[in-house]
Amino acid sequence: MIRYLNQFKMLERIRYHAVPPAFILFFTFIVQYLAIKGKGENFTVDLMQKCMLGNTTSWIWSVIIVLWGAVSLKVPAKDVKGPETSFGVRPIYKGNGFQYYCFTLIIYILMDQLFPVSASLYENFPQLLGSFNIIAMLLCIFLLIKGKVSPTHKNDKVKRDPLLYEFYRGMELHPTVFGLDIKQLTNCRIGLMGWQIFIHAFFVTSVGKYGFNHAVFVNYILQTVYLAKFFWWEAGYFYTLDMMFDRAGYYICWGCLVWVPCLYTYSSYYIVQHQPSLQTNQALLFLIAGLLSITLNYLVDYEKQKFRNAKDYKCKIWGKEASFIRAEYVDGKGRKKTSALLTSGFWGISRHMNYTFELLAAFSWCGVGGFENAPMVHLYFIFLFGLLIHRTFRDEDKCEAKYKRHWKLYCEKVPYRLLPYIW
């Protein structure tokens, strides 16, 4: 018994004292390494240190991107409520995501016709990541202090942990500053929109340097369709783990401000300098597979959203009345409540079919980069695979703790996690 207790204490020390500094140092370093190597340059510590401070161009663009995202959350728009938290608050978000996405992309394309914006973003990409890294670190320090001194929601209680772990995890679930929801700003309006802007810049740069390449185009268009789908469905994102359970700290805010622009765009960035050599018919196969996967991913999420918004959960899925399991649970205030676990459509085939199609979509736009460029063009897919496997277990642990026996009934009804009839 004492041995197991000592092992538990050791794991706790690793989690709270070793993991945060290790992750912060590793990911801050690897971002610069990838950005420098992706351009075909020789990596040196001196070059990394220069890039980490940014330059005039990178600071101008990073400030513009941040302010533009903030403005999008201040213009008049429909309010969208997120799910109720354990402390009884329903966060309010702005429901103008798709309009923001379209308007931003159009403005950027017009600017690119007048000035060499795309070439500038590509050439200064390591410095841009350096600027965003500094902005993200300062934001996380501010959020740590704010969460301790003046939290947005007084009832948002979180246990005190070692300071560096609190910085890494975050203190508040839904902090707001000047009326801006910080997580919607960092995750959606900067991180995901930055993803779109950067891949567009990389595509334009590739065409300008080497001419039109079918594989490069497929890589770009699949991600563009995926991101357009995301902003069309943005209200559904507010019901995901990122928004419901992850606190605003280094993990989520730095991740969206720096890691997303770096790794999520990396296949597009890398193939500018390392042009893929796929034949047109091969690129076409990746395009078809990717579009099909993105469409199915959207349909899976749409089914859940349609079911959630239906009165008394009465709606049709695949032409039949939706079947579900009524699940009782106790909220953070000790009140008994009832929810519903959907067992129709894709949600009756596997418990995380949306993850399955998301992985297939990512493989399509990474794979079209060519296996001669492996594993660099596949880094996002490799990372996403690990992330979604981890998220699958994390999600199910939370559901089991919340719904208890009703979750076990759901798992008996829908026994597969990701791959029907396999796992």
Describe the structure.
This protein is mainly alpha-helical. It folds into two domains: 1-274, no CATH class; 276-423, no CATH class. It is 65% helix and 7% strand. It is built from 17 helices and eight strands. Strands 1-2 form a two-stranded antiparallel sheet. Strands 3-4 form a two-stranded antiparallel ribbon. Strand 3 (176-177) and strand 4 (180-181) form a beta hairpin. Helix 1 packs parallel to helix 12, helix 4 packs parallel to helix 8 (182-210) and helix 5 crosses helix 8. The protein starts with a helix and ends in a 10-residue tail after the last helix. The mean pLDDT is 90. It is a multi-pass membrane protein. The chain crosses the membrane at residues 16-36, 56-77, 98-119, 125-145, 220-239, 251-271, 283-300, 377-393. Pfam families: ERG4_ERG24. Its main location: endoplasmic reticulum. GO terms for molecular function: 7-dehydrocholesterol reductase activity.
